[in-house]
Design a protein that fits this description.
Blueprint (H helix, E strand, L loop, with lengths): L9 E5 L4 H12 L3 E6 L4 H7 L2 E4 L18 E4 L14 H28 L4 E6 L12 H21 L4 E8 L8 H4 L2 H10 L9 H11 L10 E4 L7
Parallel strand pairs: 1-2, 1-4, 2-3, 4-5, 5-6, 6-7
Helix pairs in contact: 1-7, 3-4
Pfam family, one: adh_short_C2
Organism: Cereibacter changlensis
InterPro entries: 2-deoxy-D-gluc_3_DH (IPR011286), NAD(P)-bd_dom_sf (IPR036291), Sc_DH/Rdtase_CS (IPR020904), SDR_fam (IPR002347)
Length: about 240
């Protein structure tokens, strides 16, 4: 029987205080998982929604999660991320480094810490990285974000190659244009927002909850033979 149940599993979701991270945390909890909501700011609302608990982690330090897996964690969702917007000719080194540290370097070292702990106790696990449409496309005015999300897609495949045979599934979700803080500037620009909507076959901006089902699937027994996939949840954007 195909099962999507996460009963008895413990999940750590980073960047879980709002948006996509919060929606994924709620979805995992609804599927039966115990959820640890991690973020640099308060995750109290997410904890209230999931019945889980909170862990303060600031991924401006890419090694922030190195000690987060002392207790068994079955599912890791690397959602924490930031974005900086500027023309490439004006983009600063500080904006480049800050985004790469949070979006890529921290993802790798959090995956590493998770895998070390899982392998040490002879257990498998599930890693779900949050990629982006800009793992496949260039975008405009977000050079470090685009580079970091291309990196997340590649890293997901590399880690799947290394860890699939050891019982750790590593996959990613590539959200499309979702109504979150990261896209607020785009939605506030009527012309840019309309241009985006005109390109989306589904005819609407995505909602954070649209990502939760994909995360539950990848975390569940139903995805046992899924390794190294980058699942687009984009309203058809990449098919256009």
């Amino acid at each position: 029987m195909i099962s999507f149940s996460l009963a008895g599993k413990r999940a750590l979701v980073t960047g879980a205080n709002t948006g996509i991270g919060q929606a994924i945390a709620v979805g995992l909890a609804e599927a039966g998982a115990e959820v640890i909501a991690a973020g640099r700011s308060s995750c109290a609302e997410t904890v209230a929604l999931t019945g889980g608990r909170e862990l303060r982690l600031d991924f401006a330090d890419p090694m922030a999660a190195k000690d987060a897996f002392a207790e068994p964690i079955d599912i890791l969702v690397n959602n924490a991320g930031i974005i900086r917007r500027a023309d490439s000719v004006d983009f600063t080194e500080a904006d480049w480094d800050e985004v790469m540290d949070v979006n890529l370097k921290a993802v790798f070292f959090t995956c590493q810490a998770f895998a070390k702990a899982a392998l040490a106790r002879g257990a498998g696990g599930r890693i779900i990285n949050i990629a982006s449409l800009l793992s496949f496309q260039g975008g405009i005015r977000v050079p470090s974000y685009t580079a970091s999300k291309h990196g997340v897609a590649g890293l997901t495949k590399l880690l799947a190659n290394e860890w699939a045979a050891k019982g750790i599934n590593v996959n990613a979700i590539a959200p499309g244009y979702i109504e979150t803080n990261n896209t607020e500037a785009l939605r506030a620009d009527p012309a840019r927002s309309q241009a985006i909507l005109d390109r989306i076959p589904a005819g609407r901006w995505g909602e954070a909850a649209d990502i939760a089902g994909a995360a539950v699937f990848l975390a569940s027994p139903a995805a046992a033979y899924v390794h190294g996939a980058v699942l687009n949840v984009d309203g058809g954007w990449l098919a256009r």
